[in-house]
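Postdoc handover notes: sequence design on the structure in folder B. Input tokens:
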């Protein structure tokens, strides 16, 4: 189905099952431990061996000698994989650095060997006996230093210039010129990257934990120089991703190569202390923002430049993208500068671009509101725009930002905020309120599904879509149930298998809208088949309560499959509505903090998010996404930081003991309000995404609340105690 005109009324609009806060259908499996994750596929194939990944001990240089004798002689060792015996490999399309390094090393903890043994403990033990000598080369590891040496706009992403920024800024009566920094961050999902691989002759099967089955399928086949038909990938349950599992990573490749070398199935989990340096991370940024406004509070000049670093072939952290769309202002300059760094590859982490970009922009907006003496909520409302500020005549499909802010302010008690920072005190606590705008674009990609109706009236959906803890199983079941007019318990959903139709996968908060739209498309076809089988007119047939009704006739749905199951498959493809309309999601984030006047301990006391993100397919799972994201935003504001050793070139705190994320005791009462919205330009589902929106802007709201509490403006994340004392 091609989607190129705004959606009209369709069966989803009945909202009998879609839009209901139903429980996760995979919930009971998850809590009983009956949903096997990749490393738990004990029954999938017999004779599984265990791999332990050896990571490079230097950031840049060459291996001069590798002594594997002691490791080979250790108990239980079956084989040791290195580039010496891996066979020829191509580089996957989506990997900047080789997943198996040697002799050339391009980043710290790059995998250089996989030790395979009968047991996990034996593999771990033997791996400690691998001796490696290196010739170390000097590398670049310090973003501030790289920036000082000067990097300009890259030709792939040139600056965007509208009007005359320099002149407008110089003439603006009120100006702000401030620089903000955001640190490297690691995804820290609960389940590490893990894979089990088994060969049958020239055919390979992999059970893994990956957000994008179709991408992994393509890249694994390419890397191993196999045809796609020779490779099958399954990723039915994913214990969190946040972008870490968008791409083929070392666990998948090494399990496949290791299994070929060992001649038996091999499973590999990346050890937790390896993940931060071995895989991708969110790259640090240095962001300079200049704002100019008239005394009336209207922005006349907006500039946002962002510096980040990456390995050869890696891309910039696009922290300026929201600044091109969020506020009106006639004179604009935005651009990214990419420095070469020899750290691990920087790549997508939840809301890449907007998440770090808003940490800077929304503090700058708070600072500007203060300079202007205007309430921060009113300042945003004053500078709202209903059109793309860079491309006039191009409207937002929906933009309820003002409603988000007004409802948020009313619901949170914003009028209790003292405009004078540092003036509200409760005993030893300084109390402050802060807010920020949340913004994230709505992306779409084609997405396919297959649906089958059997003689029992059971509807089975198959798509390679993944559920990374987000609720995909449930909203896909809701979609099929709504379309086919059956109860939720009559629907079976099977996900995460490359033998199913390719979906858009779980990324960029596009998964919910696009994968359900693919299921919708397949169901439209299945309804036609059903109507035909029952001799009814498809155009006026009503599917409800397990029955199909047309005119005077009412026939059980299952009758259509009496002589054999009916199967339909389709893919939703998107036309140019994304070009004609700017599709984005919006939020108002409100936070109350208390800061200990003596120790500077920060406690977040209350959080509220008001979101406008199209139709909410399941308010319960959507709310879970948003409160999880708000928690992550709290972490980004106060805790999360990969500390770079700028001499040796690696992230020092590379485990969950050293990399701090919020725990339950850090998280206060969180409230989420979804505005009523349907976006007919996004898909037949009229939905958009919330999983990343929930994060965007949260950290800035915390920073602004801290300023309101203390009068201290921190522009350097995370806001740890030392920066407040
Ligand atoms: Mo998201 S960073 O595209 O998983």
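Designed sequence:
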């Amino acid at each position: 189905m091609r989607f190129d005109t705004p959606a009209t009324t369709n069966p989803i609009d009945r909202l009998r099952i879609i839009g209901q806060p139903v429980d996760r259908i995979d919930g009971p499996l998850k809590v009983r431990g009956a949903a096997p994750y990749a490393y738990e596929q004990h029954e999938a194939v017999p004779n599984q061996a265990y791999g332990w990944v050896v990571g490079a001990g230097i950031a840049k240089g060459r291996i001069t000698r590798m002594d594997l004798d002691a490791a080979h002689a250790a108990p239980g060792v079956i084989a040791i994989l290195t580039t010496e015996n891996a066979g020829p490999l191509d580089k996957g399309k989506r990997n900047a650095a080789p997943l198996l390094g040697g002799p050339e090393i391009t980043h710290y903890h790059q995998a250089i060997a996989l030790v395979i043994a009968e047991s996990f403990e034996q593999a771990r033990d033997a791996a400690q006996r691998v001796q490696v000598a290196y010739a170390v080369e000097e590398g670049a590891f310090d973003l501030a230093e790289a920036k000082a040496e000067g990097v300009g706009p890259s030709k792939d992403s040139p600056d965007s210039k509208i009007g005359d920024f320099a002149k407008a800024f110089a003439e603006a009566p009120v100006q702000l010129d401030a620089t903000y920094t955001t640190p490297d961050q690691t995804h820290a999902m609960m389940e590490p990257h893990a894979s089990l691989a088994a060969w049958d002759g020239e055919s390979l099967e992999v059970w893994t934990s990956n957000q994008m089955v179709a991408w992994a399928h393509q890249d694994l086949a390419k890397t191993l120089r196999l045809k796609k038909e020779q490779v099958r990938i399954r990723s039915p349950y994913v214990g969190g991703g946040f972008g870490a599992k968008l791409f083929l990573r070392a666990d998948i490749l090494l399990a496949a190569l290791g299994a070929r070398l060992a001649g038996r199935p091999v499973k590999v989990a990346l050890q937790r202390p390896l993940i931060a340096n071995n895989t991708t991370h969110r790259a640090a940024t240095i962001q300079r923002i200049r704002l100019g406004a008239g005394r009336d509070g209207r922005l006349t000049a907006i500039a946002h430049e962002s510096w980040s670093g990456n390995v050869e072939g890696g891309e910039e952290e696009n922290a300026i993208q929201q600044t091109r769309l969020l506020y009106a202002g006639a004179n604009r300059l935005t651009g990214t500068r990419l420095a070469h760094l020899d750290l691990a590859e920087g790549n997508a982490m939840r809301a890449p671009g907007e998440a770090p970009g808003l940490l800077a922009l929304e503090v700058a907006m708070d600072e500007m509101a203060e300079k202007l003496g205007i309430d921060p909520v009113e300042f945003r409302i004053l500078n709202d725009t209903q059109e793309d500020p860079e491309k006039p005549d191009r409207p937002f499909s929906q933009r309820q930002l003002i409603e988000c802010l007004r409802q948020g302010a009313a619901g949170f008690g914003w009028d209790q905020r003292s405009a004078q920072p540092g003036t509200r005190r409760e005993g030893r606590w300084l109390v402050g309120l802060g807010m920020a705008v949340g913004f994230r674009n709505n992306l779409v990609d084609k997405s396919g599904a297959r649906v089958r109706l059997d003689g029992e009236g059971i509807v089975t959906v198959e798509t390679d879509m993944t559920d990374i803890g987000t609720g995909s199983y449930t909203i896909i079941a809701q979609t099929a149930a709504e379309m086919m007019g059956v109860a939720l318990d009559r629907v079976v959903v099977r996900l995460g298998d490359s033998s199913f139709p390719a979906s858009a996968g779980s990324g960029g908060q596009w998964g919910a809208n696009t994968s359900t739209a693919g299921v919708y498309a397949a169901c439209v076809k299945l309804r036609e088949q059903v109507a035909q089988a029952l001799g009814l007119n498809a155009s006026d047939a009503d599917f409800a309560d397990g029955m199909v009704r047309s005119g005077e006739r009412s026939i059980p749905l299952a009758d259509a499959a009496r002589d054999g199951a009916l199967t339909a498959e389709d893919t939703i493809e998107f036309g140019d509505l994304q070009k004609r309309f700017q599709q984005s999601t919006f939020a108002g984030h409100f936070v109350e903090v208390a800061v200990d006047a003596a120790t500077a301990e920060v406690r977040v006391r209350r959080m509220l998010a008001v979101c406008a993100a199209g139709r909410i397919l399941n308010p319960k799972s959507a709310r879970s996404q948003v409160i999880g994201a708000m928690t992550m935003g709290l972490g980004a504001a106060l805790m999360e930081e990969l500390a770079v050793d700028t001499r040796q070139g690696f992230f020092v705190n590379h485990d969950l003991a050293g990399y701090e994320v919020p725990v339950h005791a850090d998280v206060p009462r969180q409230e989420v309000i979804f505005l009523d919205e349907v976006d007919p330009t996004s898909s037949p589902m009229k939905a958009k995404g919330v999983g990343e929106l929930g994060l965007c802007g949260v950290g800035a709201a915390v920073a602004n609340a801290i300023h309101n509490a203390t009068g201290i403006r921190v522009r350097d994340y995370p806001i740890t105690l030392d920066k407040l004392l």
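Context for whoever picks this up: Residues 426 and 594 are 9 Å apart (CA to CA). Don't rerun without checking with the PI first.
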